[in-house]
Amino acid sequence: MPVITRIALPLAASLALAGCATSPLANKTADDAAIYTLQQSSLDARYNFDGSLRISDLDIPAELGSLANPDLVKDVARSFSFDMRGAVDMPASRIELVPTFRFARPNVESWVRVPMLFQLNTLTAWVDASALDLALPQLHGKLLKLNAPQDKVADIPVDAVMRDLPLIIGAAYSAVDKKAFTFQPLSDSDRQKGASYRIRLTLDPAAEAQLGRVMLQEVAARVKRYSASKEVQAFADKLAEEVAKTQGEMASESQTELLVDSRAKLLAMEEQRTLRAPKLKGFSVTLRTQMAMRNHGQPVFTVLPTAANVLTLDELKAPSWFSRVTGKGEDEESVESAEPEVDAAEAAAPAEAAPLAPKAKTKAKPRKPKAKKPN
Prior knowledge:
35% of the residues lie in helices and 27% in strands. It is an alpha+beta fold. Strand 2 and strand 3 form a beta hairpin. Helix 2 packs antiparallel against helix 7 (165-174), helix 7 runs antiparallel to helix 9 (205-226) and helix 9 packs antiparallel against helix 10.
C-alpha cells in the first residue's frame, strides 16, 4: 500500500469520527433532534427550495357519488398538481414563492405560473401577473406591488415575533408526545443527498389540533406582548378564537419525515396529510408534499423589484376593451377628464347676465303715391 494511502485512510476515518462526535444531534432523542433542527432552520433559514403537492387519494360520500362517478372525480383530482420553487432569507424577512398550477392528461397539459415576493416585516408583496397581460397589457413585464397601509404595519411586531420563532417552535412541538417522533433508517438515496438522519413525526387528529393550537397561542401571546396597539391585541385574541372554531370543522392527521445532515441542516421534507370533515361523513382527501432545500446560506432570488418594473394598483389603468364593456367610450372619458373642475363658490354664484345684442333698425316701407283729385 502506498505511503500516501496509509496516511490518508486513518486521517479520513478520524475526521469522520470527529464529525460524528461533534454533531449537534449526537446522542439526542428523536424528538429533541427534530425540534433542534426545526429551530435552527427557522433561526437562520437561507436557502432555495423546490417542491410539489399532489392529491394522492380522494374519497367522497355516497350521496355525492350518485351525482358524479367517484372514479371520474378521483381521476380529475389527480390530474391537478401544484409545483413550487422559491427562496427563503429569514434574516432579511424575505420569501420568494413561484407556484405553478398544472393540469395534465395524456396529450393535454395546461399550467399557470404566478411568481411572488413577500417582504414580511412591511407586509408587502410583489406579484408577477404577466399571465393576464393579454387582458391587461400594462402588466406585461411588470410586478404588481401590493402592500398594507404602513401606518398600520408599524403596530404589528413582525420582526419581534420572527425573532422568537425558535421559541414558538420549541413550545409547540414540545407539547407533542415524544413517542410521535422516531428515527428511520437511511436509504442509499438519502446518503447521496448528504443526510445523516431521517426523523419521522406521526400525528393523529388530536395531536395535530394541539400542535396548531399551541403554536397559534404562542404567536398571539407575542403579538400582544410586543404591540402597544389595543386594536392589534384584540385582533390576536379574535384570530385565536376563530382558528379554534375551524379546527372542529376539519380534522387532519399527518406523517412527516425530515431529512437532516450531521450539522442539523434540513435537506428535505416529505409529508402525507389526510383531511376529513366530521360533518361530511365519508369525505377525505390525502395530500402528498415533497420539498428539497439547496443553496444553504446563499439563496438566489429571481423576483427582483426595481423602480422600472414595478406597478402599483393606483397606476393600473383600465384597458380599452373595459370601456366598451361598460358602455363608456374612450372619447367620453377623455372629454370628461379634460373638463376643468368648477369651484364650489363659482357654482353657487348666479351667472352674470350676458349683454343683449342691439336690435336691428327696421326699414320704413315706401309710401304709395296719392291719386290726384280731378278739377
